[in-house]
Amino acid sequence: MSRTSEGERGYGQEDDQLSDHLSGKWVVIAYNPIAGRRPTRQLAEKLANFLQQEGLKVSVFDNVWQASEIAASIFHSGQLRAFVGVGGDGTIATQVNHTPPGLPLALLPAGTGNVFAKSVGLPTRPESIARALISGKKLTLDAGRANGALFLNMVSCGFDAAVASAVHEIRLANRRGGHIGYRSYIGPILGTLRSYCFPPLEVTVIEPANRTAPAGSPSDPLTFRVRWVFVCNLPRYGWGIRIAPGASAQDGVLDCWMFDRGGFWRGLWYALWVQLGGRHRRLRDCRHVKGRRFLIRSDAPVPCQRDGDPAGHLPVEIEVLPRRATIIVP
Question: How far apart are CA 176 and CA 273, in angstroms?
Fold first, then answer.
C-alpha cells in the first residue's frame, strides 16, 4: 500500500475496514468556491487533468449540492469511482449528508482548519489525491447524526459554537468571496466574550458505551450539568488540537468531553491543558464518557456547531451511525 507524498500515515490503514480496490471510470469533482483562504478552482482543474491523463472520465462542478446529485446517479449506475470534494470540513460534511451510504468519497484539503483531513491523514496535493484515486483503497468510518444531519468530526455546544456563527456571518459578507483564515476568528472571539454568559448545559447519555442493564430492568441515563460540551467522532478540533484523545471513527461510539466551569479565564485554562498534549483529562472539572446516543439541553438559547458550521440551537440529540461513510485513502 502506498504512502502519501507528504509522508503522513493514513488513519486506520492497518485496520480490516480497508476494503477492496476502486472501480468505475467516472470521477465527480466539486470545489467549494469559498473554502479556505484562496480560490479552489485551480486545484480542482489540476486534479481533473491528472485523472484524465490516467484515462478516467471527470466532471467538475462549483456547486457541491448539484455535484452530489450527479455523483449519486452515477453511483447507482455502477460507474462511479469517486466523488471528490475540494474544500474543508464543511465540504466533506456536505458530501456525506447528500449522498447514499457506500458512495466512495474523497477530499482534497483546501479549507482553513482541514480537521478531518488531518485526522484521517489525507495528502494535500492534487497529484497525491490523484494517485489515491488510481491505486488507493476505501476506508469505512463511523459518522454522527445530530438532529438529523450527519457529521464526521464533532458537534459542540456553547461558546465556540457562538464564535462559529459569528464567523459564518463574516464569511457571508466577506468582500473576498467568503474566504477566511485563522485571523478571521479574532474579532468574533473577542465579540463573543463580551456577550456570552456560559449558561449551564444538561448532557444526558441515553446509551452509554459500556453500560448495560440486567434483563427486564430499566437503565437510568447518565446526566451531567456542565458549561462546555464536545461530542467527537474523531480526535481533532480547531487548528488540529486533540480535544478527544483516543477517539476513533471505527469503534461504533462517540466520545463526549465536558468541562464544568464557564468564563473567559477558565476557558483559557482549559485550552492550555488541551494544547499540552491532551492533559485536560487530568483536570477534576473535566469529564469524559463514551456513548452511542446523547441528548443536550439548556434553558437558555445555546448555539451548536457541526463540523465547524452553525447548526442551530439546543436541544440536540446525537447518535452514532457505524460505518456510514466510505472514504478513499492512499
Answer: 35
